[in-house]
Amino acid sequence: MALFAQPLECVSGGATITGTAVDHIKELIRTVEGHGTDRDGFVRDSWIRCVLNHRLDPAVRRPAVIVEDRRLREHRESIEELMRVARTSVEALYKQVAGLGYVLLLTDSEGITVDYIGDPSTTDELRRAGLYLGADWNERRAGTNGTGTCIATGEAMTVHQGDHFDTQHIPLSCTVAPIFDMTGSLAAVLDISALTSPAEKSSQYLALELVKNFAHKIESANLIRSCSRNWIVKLTPNQSLAAVDTEYVVALDSTGVITGFNHRLRQLLARERHCDWRTPGLVIGRKFSDFFDCEIDSLTRFVSPHLVERNVIRLKASGQMLFAQVIPPRSFRVLRPETNAPAETATLPKPLRAVAGQEPRITRSLEKVARLVNTNMSILVHGETGTGKEFLAKAIHQSSGRSQGPFVPVNCAALPESLIESELFGYESGSFTGASSKGKKGLIREAHQGTLFLDEIGDMPLASQTRLLRVLAEREVTPIGSHKPTFVDMRVIAATHCDLQKLIAEGRFREDLYFRLNGATIHLPPLRERLDFGWLVDRLLHERPGADGERRTISPQALERLETFNWPGNIRELANVLDFASAIAPGPEIGVEDLPDQLAEQPPETSLLQKVSPTETVGNGIAPSSSAVGASAETRPSDKASELLAALRQRDWNISATARALGIDRTTLHRRMRRAGVALPPRM
Fold this sequence. Notes:
By secondary structure, this protein is α+β, with helices and mostly antiparallel strands. The protein is 35% helix and 15% strand. The protein has 25 helices and 23 strands. The strands form seven sheets. A five-stranded antiparallel sheet has the order 4-3-7-6-5, sandwiched between helices. It has a five-stranded antiparallel sheet with strand order 10-9-8-12-11. Strands 14-15-18-13-19 form a five-stranded parallel sheet. α24 packs across α25. The longest helix has 22 residues. The protein is globular. The relative contact order is 0.06. About 9% of the residues have low confidence.
């Protein structure tokens, strides 16, 4: 029995259907009615769904639907974390296919395009075709297409030209791959599409392999990011690439129960169990040892990345051998042998190593940054004025693959409010009174393929914050006076001395911009709290030769005077002081007398323990002298103070000898003494 009782009309929506379109509609109807077709099985099944389930008429052309901005924001916000992880891979993939006429789309699980990169010169054409931000590609509305059919099946595929349901989409070729979340639910679809392509579907084979590979990378990266509190096991059958290849990834809780996985791991375990990967309960909640010959307690031996080729785990059912690398939870600590170089700084890129010495708080942040330098994740740096925020931003730029591109600093507090938009976004010729006849590129476009550093972002006006948010979200900038957006490939680092959360509460800073900038956060402590003060002084002196061209050193007394100063201007103020001292010091060593007056005349810092004699001991502690105001004969120092006092007394208060015995430098010892309230006794 025929499915369509009435003959097809040759006009739909006021537009004449071409002969090619009529042939396509006839083929589609024959297929739905049960006649054979040469199309792929997923195309045939989708055509049937579109007619029988979605009640779509193949003779009706459906214009592209671009959802309104409010709805688009809702869809983007729902997968914002995944978008942040995906953006670097999306950009890398686009670089590989841009010259071939492709546009890149990332859609959510409902088929709404939440991210997009395309050739700006074809924007209008792409928008008409629906290959644009906000386009709705759900199969229920658009018929058979790459994204919608991928959502329906969970499979990677190419929907090529006549595979599409709607005749309006026949010129398109769409190649897609699903991206699943850590529990196996479809989260997004990665799509590379072309307005025109060769007639042969086989021409898209390379595109299919590329999109599957990048979707896998995004999925695995998102899993590892989401499960930092769990054990992460990375497995590969490839021994020669075991240290770098991530084929299968699984997350485990402390009891060895699987809490997350990537899609390839699910497919592997489905093959082991001879079932479909869609089988409910196949992976989540199962023990790792149900599938592999390894218990959770044995995973610690696979933590070291250096001998991955020896870390062998076997699948129980098939006996297949896989090579394992394990990432422990953040709370897990691996004991490492001591080395000459601090373990936390040994692996940092050289520019990042120049940011701090043995300062644990900064070093922990730098370790995180080192893993992010080649991503496009925005970084927000907090710190008082003068703590080195721009120096850190430059170090991040120089450590990344963008080091050959420009580093563009913008002081948001120094730009007049009336000029900030034209300076940032640029303008077209004659767009406003006083505009240059040649127009202006703008600082954001200047940062293309480099890094944009937004200093004092908390001082940016609200109106400019709104435009900046759009630029960061879409990676496009529209100059003043223009309607044509320009794609910008840049890394954004922002810095502030303000409490942005407080500004948000006061309505002076956009919360959505804060979360866009706050991909990773680094806090730079003020100079008065840094534990690497001596290292910092040495580095700054190395960069500042004296008047005779020779580099200066600093006497212990002068260094101690610097260490006791409060430094309201932080590193910037310290650099000025060292410039002054290097210039006036008559010899190679800077003494107290060479320091500026406010430091040379500064009285020594005092404490209850400062005037204690080495012989005034009571038990394991010391008794302060009568000149220590408010002290009691029963006063006992802390355990740390006791340890330091014991070490110092044992070496007759020799700072250098005590520092060597404790395995630290003199500066660190001085700082520990100050914090514990221990000071050298007066010289007799």
